[in-house]
């Protein structure tokens, strides 16, 4: 495990962490929303605009070729990072959300009336709404895998729901609310027995777990750069070659064509068929620097350090009288995301006081209305940790929650 001295060195690479919030040092524990960016990522952005800014795949000139080369290098880097078979199975999108929309849109013509799509109770809205719309369009049925009171997916129910009518199963790898790591390999294997395709939403997993898309044998895997120390506005759809080749393009125009006449258009090969228009060139190239950062530290090291933070945070937070923690507390099956409520206080009230004390957490429905309804709450407070967080920051969170509780309960009793 990393010493706190090593973590301090890593922290020093993140200039934003030296910022003050209302005169308090920033404690940034909203990493499930987005991670902060290290110097090498910030520098890569400056470097891109200073040394190679050009449009790609279309210019013969030096800078266009240089930028194209760098973009394609990052595609290969991502291929290696997730252990995909071919670089052209990596499709650049705006992020995880767009990647899911791409699949839901491109699969439309394969869905008939009466077909079924399965998602789970644990999904982020990004992995609910595209499927809901597709089902409405094609008169298909959306089925939901239930969970138990600890947020564990009920696999026996899944086996009951799935049938030859199921065309796609779309499920997250790690829940953005409960941090639970779902048994995706089992779900993928069962789905394939019935001939269903599987999309795994890896938005929360990509910076937390070693991923081998060939081993898990998923058909699609989606994620965003900004959750792994990279820029916003760029993400990936990984898809198996054979499946993507049969899919229609999601958007059309620009460099995704082979030939256009007024009578007919033919499309480019993978991956360009799915990358219409000028992509986020800077985002892709800068993402490369973020992957270098992650690989230098080692994803396994990140995973094990975050597990220690999780265990410590759960231990400290459990000591707070009146805290309601959500999700099964099993460090081996959790990432470092902890959602909770405090003494029936409104999550926004607690979040506002934490903010005044310099602590950045996420509050509200966490883009998971069905899950909030399941737990019968309107919102939660979510702390999510990253490689640069410290045990001291967790102590500060603990003390600040006690302060917030004392202040808000006093106010409530007074009213
Ligand atoms: N799926 C999951 C599981 C997510 O956590 C998120 C973002 C998305 C999809 C969408 O990713 P995007 O990069 O396309 O926006 N989750 C969160 C969150 O929990 N708080 O802010 C964003």
What does this structure look like?
This protein is α/β, with parallel strands linked by helices and 415 residues long. It has helices at 4-11, 39-51, 62-82, 96-106, 129-138, 155-161, 184-193, 213-216, 241-246, 281-297, 299-318, 347-356, 369-374, 391-414; strands at 20-21, 24-25, 27-28, 90-93, 116-120, 141-145, 166-172, 197-201, 220-224, 235-239, 257-260, 265-267, 323-325, 337-342, 359-360, 362-364, 380-384. The strands form 5 sheets. Strands 4-10-9-8-7-5-6 form a 7-stranded mixed sheet, sandwiched between helices. Helix 3 crosses helix 10. The structure holds ligand 7TS. Residues 32-33, 95-97, 124, 126-127, 172, 176, 201, 203-204, 224, 235, 362, 366-367 line the site of ligand 7TS. Ligand 7TS binds next to helix 4.
- CATH domain fold name of the largest domain: Aspartate Aminotransferase, domain 2
Total of helices: 14
Give the name of the CATH superfamily of the largest domain: Type I PLP-dependent aspartate aminotransferase-like (Major domain)
Q: Please name the CATH architecture of the largest domain.
A: 3-Layer(aba) Sandwich
For the largest beta-sheet, the strand count, sense and barrel status come to: 7 strands, mixed
Strand-pairing-aware structural class: alpha/beta
Beta-sheet strand percentage?
15-25%
Note poorly predicted spans: none
What number of structural domains do the residues give? 2
Overall average pLDDT: 96
């Amino acid at each position: 495990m990393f010493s706190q001295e090593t973590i301090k060195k890593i922290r020093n690479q993140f200039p934003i962490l030296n910022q003050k919030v209302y005169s308090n040092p920033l404690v940034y524990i909203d990493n499930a929303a987005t991670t902060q960016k290290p110097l090498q990522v910030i520098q890569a952005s400056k470097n891109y605009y200073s040394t190679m800014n050009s449009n790609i795949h279309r210019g013969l000139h030096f800078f266009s070729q240089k930028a194209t080369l760098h973009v394609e290098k990052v595609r290969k880097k991502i291929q290696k990072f997730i252990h995909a078979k071919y670089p052209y199975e990596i499709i650049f999108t705006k992020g995880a959300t767009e990647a899911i929309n791409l699949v839901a849109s491109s699969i439309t013509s394969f869905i008939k009336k009466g077909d079924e799509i399965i998602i789970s109770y644990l999904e982020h809205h990004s992995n609910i709404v595209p499927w809901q719309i597709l089902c409405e369009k094609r008169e298909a049925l959306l089925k939901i895998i239930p969970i138990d009171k600890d947020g564990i997916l009920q696999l026996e129910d899944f086996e009951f729901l799935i049938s030859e009518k199921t065309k796609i199963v779309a499920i997250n790898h790690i829940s953005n609310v409960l941090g639970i790591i779902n048994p995706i390999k089992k779900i993928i294997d069962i789905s394939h027995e019935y001939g269903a395709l599987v999309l795994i939403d890896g938005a929360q997993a990509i910076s937390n777990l070693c991923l081998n898309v060939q081993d898990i044998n998923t058909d699609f895997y989606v994620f965003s750069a900004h959750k792994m120390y990279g820029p916003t506005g760029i993400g990936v759809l990984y898809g198996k070659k054979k499946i993507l080749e049969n899919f229609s393009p999601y958007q059309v125009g620009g460099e995704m064509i082979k030939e256009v006449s007024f009578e007919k258009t033919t499309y480019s090969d993978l991956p360009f068929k799915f990358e219409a228009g000028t992509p986020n060139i800077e985002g892709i190239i800068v993402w490369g620097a973020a992957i270098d950062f992650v690989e230098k530290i080692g994803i396994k090291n990140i995973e094990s350090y975050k597990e220690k933070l999780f265990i410590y945070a759960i231990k400290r937070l459990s000591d707070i009288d009146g805290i309601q923690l959500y999700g099964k507390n099993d460090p081996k099956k959790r990432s470092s995301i902890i959602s909770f409520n405090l003494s029936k206080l409104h999550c926004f009230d607690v979040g506002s006081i934490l903010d005044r004390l310099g602590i950045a957490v996420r509050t509200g429905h966490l883009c998971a209305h069905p899950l909030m309804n399941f737990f019968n709450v309107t919102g939660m407070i979510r702390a999510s940790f990253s490689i640069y967080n410290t045990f001291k920051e967790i102590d500060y969170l603990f003390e600040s929650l006690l302060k917030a509780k004392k202040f808000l309960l006093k106010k409530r009793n007074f009213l």
